[in-house]
Write a structure and sequence with these properties.
Blueprint: H1 3-6, H2 9-12, H3 20-23, E1 29-30, H4 58-68, E2 75-78, H5 80-92, E3 99-102, H6 109-116, E4 120-123, H7 134-139, E5 144-150, H8 162-171, E6 177-181, E7 203-208, E8 221-225, H9 227-236, H10 244-253, H11 256-281, E9 286-289, E10 296-301, H12 304-313, E11 316-317, E12 319-320, E13 330-334, H13 338-349
Parallel strand pairs: 1-11, 3-4, 3-5, 5-6, 6-7
Antiparallel strand pairs: 2-8, 7-8, 9-10, 10-13, 12-13
Helix pairs in contact: 4-10, 5-6, 5-9, 11-13
The structure holds pyridoxal-5'-phosphate (PLP).
Length: 352
């Protein structure tokens, strides 16, 4: 057997996550990964790298718990939000036996992590308003150990209805974990489910420093859940998941002075998002701009491929959603600086 044949069949069949970075492009304006357009400037406070890091850096755990309004026992620090997704699947889903369920169009990593673990993916599409189809989900729950929902949803930008998520938590009680992916929650903090942890032992919340905190390069995320669930995930996480430099900067990012900076940055993004939405919807090339609660907008064009390619050739790299379920001719754009937004609008105007 050759090396490929030696690898697991599900890995042979795997389509890896198409990260914005892997898709490439020769860009001068990068608005395809929902990153912050500007980098914060932190300095490393220590130099000693000869020792292993703390398995769970205490300053980060406590800083994030205070920020999120939960206790330290409710926090697991992970290597990006993506590691939290993987840990939940690894800890709760038996390969070749159990399933996860998610609701497309949504974030691609739920499927990739499940397929890597040889866990079945069940899908129940969002409805025409990008909301959950609860009855259909309930009918599909056999064998499902984790349901992944994303709110605000990537790539559509909308929040899922709070009452629907509560019903989902209730119908899955004692059967499955409900993972609420709150990667973008800083852009609509009042919608968080963190204050529901005390009511639902099967709730897990994914958070990250990659988006509103402007630290995608740091690779730092969190799972928020009840202590019992956190303890289970702690058993399967790598022994030293958070590098010393990442923990150092993450702790600084969670200090009160920086939280004020994050809030201001969020407000600027919301202002730019409003401006960008108003401009886009007025363009003849654009058919619809979907409402967003996050740092990106989904918009539908007469000819999405044409707009995406024309911008790509100009070095403006957006995220094509044409192949995502029910998103024909749609493009996702990260809200950049005001200047970046202006340049994108000008560029689209020139496409005929
Ligand atoms: C960006 C993102 C994440 C996590 O990203 P990390 O960089 O791994 O923290 C998780 N879920 C969604 C929906 C995202 O968009």
């Amino acid at each position: 057997m050759n090396t490929t044949q030696l690898s697991r069949p599900n890995v042979q069949a795997l389509t890896p996550y198409q990260s914005a970075r892997k898709l490439g492009g020769n860009g001068t304006i990068w608005l395809n990964a929902n990153e912050s357009p500007l980098s914060p400037n932190f300095q490393l406070s220590g130099k000693d790298l000869n020792r292993y890091p703390e398995p769970q850096p205490q300053a980060v755990v406590e800083g994030y718990a205070a920020y999120a309004g939960v206790n330290a026992e409710n926090v697991l620090v992970t290597r990006g939000g993506d590691e939290g997704i993987e840990l939940i699947i690894r800890a709760f889903c038996e390969p070749a036996h159990d399933a996860i369920l998610f609701c497309p169009p949504t974030y691609g990593m739920y499927a990739v992590s499940a397929e890597t673990a040889n866990v079945t993916c069940k899908t129940m599409p969002l409805d025409a308003d990008f909301q959950l189809n609860l009855e259909a989900i309930e009918a599909q729950l056999d064998g499902v150990k984790a349901v992944f929902v994303c709110s605000p949803n990537n790539p559509t930008g909308n929040l899922l209805k709070r009452s629907d998520l509560i019903k989902l938590l209730q119908m899955t009680a004692g059967k499955a974990i409900v993972v609420v992916d709150e990667a973008y929650i800083e852009f609509c903090p009042e919608a968080s489910f963190a204050n529901e942890l005390q009511n639902y032992p099967n709730l897990a919340i994914i958070r990250t420093l990659s988006k509103a905190f402007a630290l995608a390069g740091l690779r730092c995320g969190f799972v928020l859940a009840n202590a019992e669930l956190i303890q289970i995930l702690s058993k399967v996480i790598a022994p030293y998941p958070i590098p010393v430099p990442s923990a150092d900067i993450a702790a600084q990012a969670l200090a009160d002075t920086n939280l004020t900076v994050v809030k201001k940055r969020v407000q600027t993004t919301l202002d730019n998002r409003q401006w960008l939405a108003d401009q886009l919807v007025a363009l003849p090339q654009v058919e619809q701009v979907f409402p967003s609660e996050a740092n990106y907008l989904l918009f539908k064009c007469q000819d999405g491929e044409k707009v995406f390619k024309a911008l790509w050739d100009l070095g403006i790299i957006l995220r094509d959603q044409n192949k995502a379920l029910n998103l024909q001719d749609c493009i996702r754009i990260t809200v950049g600086t005001k200047e970046e937004c202006e340049r994108v609008v000008e560029a689209i105007k020139q496409i005929n």
